[in-house]
Amino acid sequence: MTVYSTDLTGLLATIKDTLGHRVAPALTDGTARQELAAVLEQLDNLTQRIAWDQAALAQTCERTEALATRLGLAPAGDVHAGVDALRARRRDVSDVLRAAYRDGAPRAGLVESVLEFSETDVAEQISVGLRAGLPI
């Protein structure tokens, strides 16, 4: 369970910090430093404007709820409640999986349900550039 566990503002802050404190000092070319400064400014401007794509978020919430149901969890209230509710539901799913594997071999169907969910989740949430080496 991938990207939606990430706080977008925190992610951008980490990227800005890394670029500003680790990459910038290593750049000796003046033009490259100016280009990096422009990137940092754009990241700073985006921080307060960025939001999850609501249609994609709704689909992810529905898929997560379907997995939760297959794993035996009681239905959630509002399936489309947003990123915080999605994170909470995924924690619920993780708790079920942790218990299933801690107590021995998982029940029939659990592995298949998680595999089906994960294939779609990874295909949708991992950037195209990083997918080349993945079996998706």
Task: Summarize this entry quickly.
The protein has 136 residues and is mainly alpha-helical. The protein has five helices and no strands.
How would you describe the overall organization of this protein?
The protein is mainly α and 136 residues long. The chain has 2 domains: 3-47; 54-128, no CATH class. The chain is built from 5 helices and no strands. The chain has helices spanning 8-23, 30-47, 54-70, 83-102, 110-125. Helix 3 (54-70) runs parallel beside helix 4 (83-102) and helix 3 (54-70) packs antiparallel against helix 5. The longest helix has 20 residues, at 83-102. The model has no long low-confidence stretch (mean pLDDT 84).
What's the helical proportion of residues?
A: 55-70%
Largest sheet: none
- Looking at how many chains there are and whether they match, the oligomeric state comes to single chain
Separation, N- and C-terminal Cα atoms:
15 Å
Q: What is the number of domains?
A: 2
Q: Roughly what is the average pLDDT, rounded to an integer?
A: 84
With helices defined by DSSP (H or I, 4 residues minimum), what is the helix count? 5
Compute the number of strand runs: 0
Strand-helix topology:
Layout: H1 8-23, H2 30-47, H3 54-70, H4 83-102, H5 110-125
Quick tags:
single chain, 136 residues, mainly alpha, 2 domains, elongated
